[in-house]
Amino acid sequence: MSEVTVEGLEAQLEELAEIVTALTDKQDQRIEGLEQALTELRDGIGGLTSRRASGPGEEPHPRPWTARATPQQWSELADWVDWLHAHYQPQGEYRIPPCWPDHAGAAEELAGLQASWKAAMLAAEQSHDNGDQALYWHDRYLWDTLIRANRVIPNACRNTGHTSPRELPPTDRTGLPQVNGQPGAAPATW
């Protein structure tokens, strides 16, 4: 049996103190990391709640395609719509008038249609046309979306020439529920 000495106990106590100090330092680093993550999360939530509270006429968040698209993306969409017309030659309620870029709702619909077309055609190509992606796109998206896009374009644009979109009155907020004396304010959910 080995003999316990004061020097041996002091060495073990010193080693134990170093281990506790190292663990404490690691714990402090973890706490700092958690506090930083919590601050970032609070900031993110604050940004979301401020976005949610947009007023009349303000752009919603996230922004619509028409607000975030680059001139290049607009040009690509115009080229694609021209190709779509030449390729499918839609008639009647399916034909999009050339002034569609002036009608934000139509542009949003067509941008969505183009994005879904790209996804469907890429999936069909990657599957070596062994799937129904292209058929599904034609059946589910093409014709219904062209009709929806035309619903936001005035009939005059198809019949007599372009008519600028008219500004509609903002929502009458007097009928919204009152929260803390403010119309339409949403209570916090956290």
UniProtKB/TrEMBL annotation:
This is DUF4913 domain-containing protein. Residues 45-66, 157-190 are annotated as: Disordered.
